[in-house]
Amino acid sequence: GIQVEQSPPDLILQEGANSTLRCNFSDSVNNLQWFHQNPWGQLINLFYIPSGTKQNGRLSATTVATERYSLLYISSSQTTDSGVYFCAVERGGGFKTIFGAGTRLFVKA
Amino acid sequence: KAGVTQTPRYLIKTRGQQVTLSCSPISGHRSVSWYQQTPGQGLQFLFEYFSETQRNKGNFPGRFSGRQFSNSRSEMNVSTLELGDSALYLCASSLVTGVNEQYFGPGTRLTVT
Lengths: 109, 113
Known about the structure:
The structure holds 2 protein chains of 2 kinds. By secondary structure, chain A is mainly β. Chain A is built from no helices and 11 strands. In chain A, strand 9 and strand 10 form a beta hairpin.
């Protein structure tokens, strides 16, 4: 099955700093989503981005499907950005969704 | 529009018991997927239901089962609970099966003692 690798596994930032999180996948996919899991366990949708670039406020994401990776950019980080960021991919056609192991982000005030 | 709801939010059970978790999808969504999250294994796909039919299944033992009702609400059942079943169980809904955006509920945290 598809392998999904996220990097870095852990990240500590000072408030106001920028960061880039990466998601590599081992096979072609039809769907890719980025989620933020808050301390209470809720997975919050950030981007549905099987290809191309999207922006939402301080967050943006780019997926280069032909090269099998996606990037999540966080600018001017805030303490509320802390949590775990997951990417999840799906091939469609009856294949299950595969999650990466996540990037744990801590933003210091 | 209301989001995905899951009940109960927290549950404590004893080894050998069985448990049933419930998930109500976003109105109009017909696909429901279940995931197990543990510190050791991360987020793992359990199964997906669409139009009351199981469309896909992950690599879990037969103790884990589910069903979907005509109103798209879904339940999952775990029989003969083991300590290793302690986890956060997450439900996600999407409009249809296949390739489309999933929306997650708040989860049910199950503790098996």
